[in-house]
Amino acid sequence: MTRVICKNGSYDYQTLKPTIFDMLTDLGGNLINRQTSVLIKPNLLMPAKPEYCILTHPFVVKAVAEYVLDKGGHPLIADSPAMGSFKKIKKDGGYSEALEDLDVDIKAFDTTVALDIGRPFGKIEVAREAVESDVIINLPKLKTHTGMLLSLGVKNLFGCIVGLKKPEWHLKSGVDREMFARLLVQIYHTINPSITLVDGIQALQGQGPGKSGVPRHLGILVGGRDAFAVDMAICSMLGIKPDELPTLEAAKKLGMLDTEVEFEGEFNAVGDFRVPMLAPLTFGPKPVHKFMRKHLLQRPEADDLLCQLCGECWQYCPAKAITPNKEQIDFDFDVCIRCYCCIEICPHGALHTTETLPGKIMRKLSILK
Ligand code: SF4
Ligand code: SF4
User: Among all ligands shown, which has an atom nearest to the Cα of 333?
Assistant: First the structure.
């Protein structure tokens, strides 16, 4: 049996710190001692101020770092951002200021080791610290995700894939959401963080996980030793069936879900949480997948008034489906794999999904979910 704890919280540091200390002690205080190296893995997707609610709040990260130091452990805070300089993430995200009095390093993952995550993926390159640290504390942000519905505990470990390897993996598995979910599950399962603590105090709803999402106050911290159970608990609070979350569905198929979960604390239902609408990436016989993806699936679309032609999306797009012209960007929907990475990383919130006309008709006819 695994436990999940939910506590009410706010970013007032005087109350946040004891709440986080209590939760970490409850979940695994005995894991950390004088010799322990501890990787703290927040969500540091891109440069963004705390009020955008894209990144794990700096005070949550600070409280966890203080806890590790208090126990005599050696903390390192690290992630592999999808875009932007790490210096800017530290500054804009409020980490430089929040952590200035603590003896803790915060950095981008830079070296990798090959880790066998099991078939069909085999060995993949992951951040060295994720493999070599004694303890990992996984600190996701509670937010929506246009490709995977929600970004929670399991998805957060994808940040251990370093830099440019991320879009490569999106390209290899992004054409098939089920396969991408399986990749995320196997990465999580192999890295196996000791504790997952989700920052859901100010969450992100709508077209997350980047600047197209809309902040939503939930006032909760949700933690456990098993991120599958944590993600399941959050789904149930948000009124989402576990099998609607691709990572939980993949974990179930792989026999990794512990069905006996004990819930403790303030598990109150959240009304009207806005999630992005997902269409299945592949369905029907294989020969028609390409046709269906092109004509039926939601497409990325730019708001030309918001687009600054900054170049982040066309540099990141794993399929090289975006080209700039003088005043706007153009998509090549023949090669776009609908991974929605561009929406995730756009620093100006200029991208969103839009339904194709045939897709809309099909959905209305209830052929699509
Ligand atoms: S859509 Fe966003 S990421 Fe792409 S060029 Fe425009 S502002 Fe930059
Ligand atoms: S255009 Fe966007 S959705 Fe399409 S492949 Fe590129 S990053 Fe993915």
Answer: 2
Q: How many helices (H) and strands (E) does the chain have?
A: 14, 16
Q: How far is the CA of 299 from the centre of ligand 2 (A)?
A: 8
* Ligand with smallest separation from the Cα of 281: 2
290: phi then psi, degrees, rounded to nearest 5: -60, -45
| DSSP symbols for 98-140 | HTTTSS-EEEE---EEEEE--TTT-EEEEEHHHHH-SEEEEE-
The pLDDT-based confidence of 177 (bands split at 50, 70, 90) is confident
Report pLDDT digits (tens) over 83-127. Answer: 889 999 999 999 999 999 999 999 999 999 999 999 888 899 999
Of 120-134, 249-263, 320-334, 353-367, the range with the lowest mean pLDDT is: 353-367
β pairing state of 74-79 and 105-108? parallel
350 in contact with ligand 2, CB cutoff 6 A: no
Residues facing 123 on adjacent strands: 116
One-letter amino acid of 61: V
Which of 342, 343, 353 for a ligand 2 pocket mutation test, highest count of atoms within 8 Å of Cβ?
A: 342
Q: Which tens digits make up the pLDDT trace of 201-242? A: 999 999 889 888 999 999 999 999 999 999 999 999 999 999
Which residues face 115 on adjacent strands? 124
From the list 44, 46, 28, 125, the residue with the least C-alpha distance to 83 is 46
**Distance between Cα 278 and ligand 2 center (Å):** 15
Assess if CATH 3.40.50.11440 describes domain 2-265. yes
Q: Rounded distance, CA 89 to CA 110, Å?
A: 16
Specify whether the CB–CB gap between 16 and 10 falls below 8 A.
yes
Q: Is 345 in the pocket of ligand 2 (CB under 6 A)?
A: no
Confidence of residue 131 (pLDDT cuts 50, 70, 90): very high
CATH code for residues 286-364? 3.30.70.20
Sorted by where each begins, the domain ranges of the chain are 2-265, 286-364
What ligand 2 atom has the least distance to the C-alpha of 174?
8
Is 282 buried (19+), middle (13-18) or exposed (0-12) by CB count in 10 A?
A: middle
Pocket of ligand 1 (CB under 6 A): 302, 307-313, 329, 346, 348, 350-351
